Amino acid sequence: MSRRLLISVLIVLATAVVGSPAVKRTSKTAKADKTKVEKNIKQTNRRISANSAQTQQSLQQLTRLNTEIAEHSENIRMTQNKVSQLDTRIVTIEDSVAQIEKKVAAMRASYADAVRKFNLNRRSATSLLAYVLSAESFTAAYRRVRYLREFSKWRQQKSEQLAEAVDELKGKRATLDEVKAEKANSLVALTANQKALESKKATVNEKVAKLNREGNALREELEKQKARDDQLDREIKNLLLKEKQAADKAKKRAEAEAKKRAADEAKKRAEAEAKKRAAEEAKKRAEEEAKKNQKAVVGKSSTAAPTQGKKTSTPPTTKPERTEIPTLKAEQEKPATVDNTVRPAAPTSEPMTARFESHKGSMYFPVTGNYMILCRFGAPKFGTLKNKSRSVDIRVDGGQARAIFDGSVSSVSDIGDGVKTVIITHGAYRSVYINIQSTSLRHGMSVKAGQVIGPVAESSAYDNRRVLSFQMLKSGNGFTHINPLEWVR
Known about the structure:
By secondary structure, the protein is of the alpha+beta class. Among the domains are: 67-214, Orthogonal Bundle (Helix Hairpins); 350-486, Glucose Permease (Domain IIA), CATH 2.70.70. The chain has 7 helices and 13 strands. Strands 1, 4, 6, 7, 8, 9, 11, 12 and 13 form a 9-stranded antiparallel beta sheet that branches.
């Protein structure tokens, strides 16, 4: 848009120059015209910059308003749930109060009936002493004394039970009053949240109407932001895809090497077995040959009998030929060594995935220090309801980005102006930290939960405030974005 506006200004200036009466041009007038044109160009550029800044500021305000609307809606939902729970509790307490009131009434009626019967039993006696002394016998008087004692004990016990029941009733009524007051306060808060929500919605509608009036500038800024967001998303997915391809390639290479090692070991075992069998057969043949030679020598010596009475010269005895037993080479005589070392299988991501999933909801928040969530996952982005945020945008006040869980760095990439995006692998999950100013992490390094990644850079989309865009993905058939706020505390 800035280029078109600049061209329009130049055309207007050129038309003004051409349409004016022919005057004698001098270097002085030419310089004056050049100065005028440059001044107009600067003014046009300032208007373009101001318009772009206003449009961007309006978009940021719209994003914040949408986030506040989502928070108010969540507060309303939670307050409504609380009111429903309080209504249920009120009904329960009212039932308890009614039951206790019945119990107290029954106890009072029982107590009054017992006292009335006791008074009837006394008949016309004006006092307890007269009641005892009016007995017909000493035994009857003793029974009446015992009866009076037991009745006095029973009255004391019933009085205490009745007092406890009355106290319980008072406590239940006090609790009921407190719950009703809490419900009244919740309804006040609910009304306030609903009014705030309506006010925010009205402000959003006003902003949207204003942005719609701005027309082309809004659309261009929206398209620019959306294109940047889409490009960043493509870069992240490409990095993850390359990582997955490299992991698959390494896995295939490890499997091929393991298969080759197994084949080599099997070949070595087969060669060792063959050599062992050959040595045993050679040894057996040598032993059989030696036995044959020994039998031949014994047969010759038995045929030459000595002559009696004559002195004969003893022929030289022929020593049996020594049969050489073939021996194997030293390396063949050694027992075949079989490599029985159990090698660990190629590492898998399953234990890390299970460990990561078991900590859902209790992991570190991705930034240290004070922060404010400017845009939540799934919230409207770029001024329309069609575009949903795939990240959580967090404004940082002096803090730094940190790893939410143990893992390994799978990528550190530059997204322009020296700003980094760091991706950490947690088994089948990935955590993505966008807009890192600088980091000492490198590909393949291990990180611990809570380890600092680096300071957060300024974001032009949020008035040059330091804002971290945090994403989480899960691998399966490709990579799927998931809500990071469900995993961190």
